Amino acid sequence: MVTQANHDVSELKLNFDRVRDESAKAVVDQEQFVEHLMIAAIAGGHCLAEGPPGVARSLTARSMAQICGLQFNRIRCTPDLLPQELIGAGPHPDDAGDISLVPGPLFAHIILVDDIRRLSPMTNSLVQQVIEGGTVVVDGCKYDLPQPNLLLATNYVDEEPPDAVPRPQDDRFMLKLALPYPRYETEYRVAESLTQAGDQQLKRVLSPEHFMGYRQTVLGVEAPPPVLHYSVRLARATRVHDGETPDFVYEWVRTGAGPRAVHFLTLAAKVRAALHGRAVVESDDIRQVSHAVLRHRIVLNQNALTNGVSVDRVIDRLLYEVPARQPGDDQPPSE
């Protein structure tokens, strides 16, 4: 029997496939990046994006905004950037004498915040306000930002010291995306496309209203007990003090993922299942989003840093050692 949830996720999958196909006209080999941006936008989350310059962060985000009917703005961060410059001119009388807000770059659906670590503490606190509540306060008045609201904050790995520790506020981001240099074949296709005449015209596939409706669709996606158990086990296995930790975690990890990781693992997996046309989450959905959810929530110890162990290697090992299913997973845990 075809349920309403199955119908809704089938429509979402169809439109997601169209978004992915249109994005491929503008950017090469960024299907996973597009999927992660869609997951965050539908879930109401935000993303960190780390990688070297020139890996199509801004092009991908701008193209997705165009395809999805969303407004895109870009903020280039500097230490002297003031909060007022992000908010805009603030309350301002219009021709009729009514007070309205002259919006700044924060008032967009997708906001690319370039080099977020260069912001001053005062300006960064405003950005954190957006991440936490989707609102800004101007002269004592609260203004809601356009929805969906996706903040994509970038950081360049070349500027990071080898022992860099994630900042506490990084945990508020739903996903952290690692964007490496492209493969040889990808760079060849990029070079080849530059020799072809004409620009690809991207078709609009979605609207902001679609995203708000899809948030309701995701609420109808079922996460059965075995999937929830798997999500909890993965997060708890990163913590060196719980007594449920694999031996290699004691060797490599200083601080593990907190409870917010379990929430985002489950939510991201639900959105991914819906994007792929399924009304029930599978353990593979958890695995597919685990790197993006856990990457900025695990802090390596000095032993791991000395031996060149990366956070992604830790997550790979977790996925290998933590079982996706155990006896008794069909029921919630007993009190």
What's the short story on this structure?
With 335 residues, the protein is of the alpha/beta class. It contains 13 helices and 11 strands.
Can you give keywords for this protein?
2 domains, 13 helices, 5-stranded parallel beta sheet, two-stranded antiparallel ribbon, Helicase, Ruva Protein, domain 3, 45% helix, alpha/beta, Rossmann fold, 335 residues
Low-confidence stretches: none
Number of strands: 11
Radius of gyration: 21 Å
**Helicity level:** 40-55%
Mean pLDDT: 86
Name of the CATH homologous superfamily of the largest domain: P-loop containing nucleotide triphosphate hydrolases
Number of helices: 13
Based on secondary structure, the structural category is alpha/beta
CATH topology label of the largest domain = Rossmann fold
Order of helices and strands: HHEHEHEEEHEEEEHHHHEHHEHH
Distance between the termini: 35 Å
Could you name the CATH class of the largest domain? Alpha Beta
Major beta-sheet overview: 5 strands, parallel
* Strand residues, percent: 5-15%
Outline, from the CA principal axes? globular
CATH architecture of the largest domain: 3-Layer(aba) Sandwich
Spatial ordering of strands, largest sheet? 2-5-8-1-9
Q: How many domains, in number, for the residues?
A: 2
